[in-house]
């Protein structure tokens, strides 16, 4: 299918943003807005993931927009982090609907803290009917420490290269042991994951804002989880520890797909192709 790739420039609270809209010649009524993960990334995505995803989805008739929000890529202004990009998302959705007027439903796609942003801000926009969440970021010292102990330190003990470094004196055993003990102490800390209050009150931690979004959202959710990602495992650790999260996800129209061999960024060709294939299947349902 022929697809136009239309560059767009638009404003958000006085700052200039840039995006690319992929418009198929026979567009479907469901479109995808890609959110860039924080850090040194831009609308192309890590390993040009967003470019490949946008071209693959639009070739199947789904309009796609990818853009730089304030402070990232070619987006003007200061980078404020994923908690403050609601105005950027709203401005991008307006431009997306203007360039692809046949779109009736918007699906937000994001990985890591971009999926956190989608879950926090997406439920507030009336056009957002779906969320694609890749390895949602829910960092907490206690859960992170548990994941490191379970999935890093234990694996290192089975790794021949670790023992080679140790016995060849390329590793300081006391320093390594000290670091491990600090992590184990953090892992054993009691953390209240059963957060029952509303995130609308006070200065709530961002995982609580995500939980509130999961409670409010009435659309469909595709959860894509990498088997080789500590961020993914930390999210699962949170789910195990929190009845509130379990209840919130149970009431959602949720599809979960696990990619055992994929890393956090789906950086291999095989992982990206598999991720795109499951995304297309879900979008077509």
Description:
It is built from 10 helices and 8 strands. The protein is an alpha/beta fold. Strands 1-2-4-3-5-6-7-8 form an 8-stranded mixed β-sheet, with helices on both faces. Helix 3 links the parallel strand 5 and strand 6. Helix 4 crosses helix 6 and helix 4 packs across helix 8. The longest helix is centred in the middle third of the chain and has 17 residues. It is globular, with a radius of gyration of 20 Å. About 7% of the residues have low confidence.
Give the SSE map.
Elements: E1 3-12, E2 15-24, E3 30-34, H1 49-59, E4 64-68, H2 86-99, E5 105-111, H3 113-121, E6 128-134, H4 141-157, H5 160-167, H6 173-187, H7 206-216, E7 220-226, H8 230-241, H9 243-251, E8 253-259, H10 269-284
Concise account of the structure shown:
With 285 residues, this protein is of the alpha/beta class. The protein has 2 domains: 3-138 and 203-284, 3-Layer(aba) Sandwich (Rossmann fold); 142-187, no CATH class. Helices cover 43% and strands 20% of the residues.
Instruction: Indicate the proportion of strand residues.
Output: 15-25%
Principal-axis shape equals globular
Could you describe the largest sheet, including whether it forms a barrel? 8 strands, mixed
How far apart are the termini? 20 Å
Question: Largest beta sheet: what is the strand line-up?
Answer: 1-2-4-3-5-6-7-8
Calculate Rg over CA atoms: 20 Å
CATH superfamily of the largest domain: Alpha/Beta hydrolase fold, catalytic domain
Question: What's the CATH architecture of the largest domain?
Answer: 3-Layer(aba) Sandwich
At the first level of CATH, the class of the largest domain is: Alpha Beta
Could you name the CATH topology of the largest domain? Rossmann fold
- Domains (count): 2
Individual helix count: 10
Overall mean pLDDT: 84
